Structure formats: C-alpha cells, structure tokens
C-alpha cells in the first residue's frame, strides 16, 4: 500500500522547505497531496515563489493521511496554525498515533499554540525556539519524539524530509532516496 502525506501550504510558507518536503516525499514514492489553507489553490511563498496546490484544505479535511508535514516561513506558519480544518486534522493525527511534523517557525507558531507539542520534545528555527515549552532538544537539527518530527529551517530541510521518509517508508527507502542526491552523511 502506498504511503500518503499531506503538505499544507499558505501565503508566506517557506519556499525551500515547502518544495523540499514535497519533492523528497515524492521521490520516495509517497502519494503527496499539497493543500492550500486559503480559498485559492495558488499561494505566494515567503520569497515570492508562486506554488499551486493540488487542492484546498477544506476539500481534503475528511481524508486520513499517514503523515502531515508543515513547512515553516512567516507568515505562512501562522496561516497554517490559524487554519481550523488543518488544526483539526493535526489533532486527529496526533490522537491516532500517526506521523506529523513541522519545520522552522511552524513547530512554535502552528503546533505549540494548538497543543500539538504537549509532552513532546521539539526544535524550531533559532528565532522561535524560545516559544517552545519543552527546551530539552532545541539544539538538534531534527528531533523525533514519538510520532512528531520537527526541524530547524531551510538548511535542515533535506535532513527533515529524509527523516520523514525514514519514519514513513523505512531506512532502506531513505537511503535509496538520499544516494542520488549526493548528500554526505545522509
């Protein structure tokens, strides 16, 4: 059975993180659905890159995914955290013990205020780490705690995405995807 992932995007989502998560998951053979949290499928990312989603969050909020992964960026992370349909999906994801993750500002701005990091170690972009209630692992590039995976920012996006692949599809698939990317120590 093919693994499924939802990558929600918003106006102001971090360009590198959004595309890297989508790209790496698709390289691993994951069925990725990109969903805009706005009324328009096309969003303008933080660095003015225009990204067209596959669908709107409201059109897929009744679906279940093996993984929900949030890119960061501002104000994108705040827009994601303010999306009631997305937050509902993330709460259901956590309660069911399915994978969810966030990178950059999103752990602090989208997950933390919505109670999605309660009892979880996490990291975030250094400019947002002080907003995390659990400070025990903020210095790590990628943090896995239970079914929650977090990371620091654009420079850790490949490591984050490959970790998502590993926890979704296994270590062998992670290695298979990483090898042609010519990543030292991937």
UniProtKB/TrEMBL annotation:
GO cellular component, one term: cytoplasm
InterPro entries: Class_I_gatase-like, DJ-1, DJ-1/PfpI, Prot/Nucl_acid_deglycase
UniProt domain DJ-1/PfpI: residue ranges: 4-166
One Pfam family cited in the UniProt record for this chain: DJ-1_PfpI
Keywords assigned by UniProt, alphabetized: Repeat
NCBIfam families assigned: not_thiJ
Name of the protein: DJ-1 family protein
